């Protein structure tokens, strides 16, 4: 990781699967909102020059207040998100000034600094890289009839996480092309993959969970206590 990096942290989702009145990225994990835990890891890394935070329009005010309260000086822009995650990423990217950009979910507070570094280093070699872990379960493709259609070879299956790291121009052009062609991906790499450019997969770890459903909150408390005993992997 030899270049200066910017990070887009997307947190403009509504958290419908969590089912809480408060959006999940603002739920307290011990003493601080989940989003603040996430931002602190990026803030702490010398290689990261700036952060573009993407949130809902009505949350810009409180996020701005938190950046002061928690010393998140690298948050250079807080921008309003879009309808889908991909739209939010595009808006965040437009607010970054660096030639290298990574995208991270605001609801993945347990990513390790060492994993971020490994992902960015791979992107510097290949142009694009994502963090991921090998799947542990057997995965089936299931048809609309509820019957198994196929069983892909597990050795080639990885569960994809964030951050996803890119030469900024590569991601920007890929996202613009996806938008022009009406393509919506569930992660950032998908836009790049469809241009034919290579994307490296970097093994991360299973604790980099995306807080998605209520069960994940108990797991998050456990991981936070454990991390306090270990440091954040810097
Ligand atoms: N229009 C959107 C949708 C999602 N996200 C962000 O993308 C990340 C991953 O999305 P997900 O876990 O699916 O979050 P939500 O969309 O909030 O959840 P749900 O799908 O349950 O509504 C989250 O940090 C979320 O805030 C975003 O910035 N803009
Ligand atoms: C980008 C991502 O976190 C990779 O696992 C995931 O695809 C986001 O998907 P979601 O549908 O927004 O949860």
From TrEMBL:
InterPro entries: IspD, IspD/TarI, IspD/TarI_cytidylyltransf_bact, Nucleotide-diphossugar_trans. The record marks 17, 24 as: Transition state stabilizer. Its EC number is 2.7.7.60. It catalyses: 2-C-methyl-D-erythritol 4-phosphate + CTP + H(+) = 4-CDP-2-C-methyl-D-erythritol + diphosphate. The record marks 154, 210 as: Positions MEP for the nucleophilic attack. Pathway: Isoprenoid biosynthesis; isopentenyl diphosphate biosynthesis via DXP pathway; isopentenyl diphosphate from 1-deoxy-D-xylulose 5-phosphate: step 2/6. It holds the Pfam family IspD. GO terms for molecular function: nucleotidyltransferase activity. Keywords: Isoprene biosynthesis, Nucleotidyltransferase, Transferase. Belongs to the IspD/TarI cytidylyltransferase family. IspD subfamily. Catalyzes the formation of 4-diphosphocytidyl-2-C-methyl-D-erythritol from CTP and 2-C-methyl-D-erythritol 4-phosphate (MEP). This is 2-C-methyl-D-erythritol 4-phosphate cytidylyltransferase. It comes from Paenibacillus cisolokensis. The lineage of its organism: Bacteria, Bacillati, Bacillota, Bacilli, Bacillales.
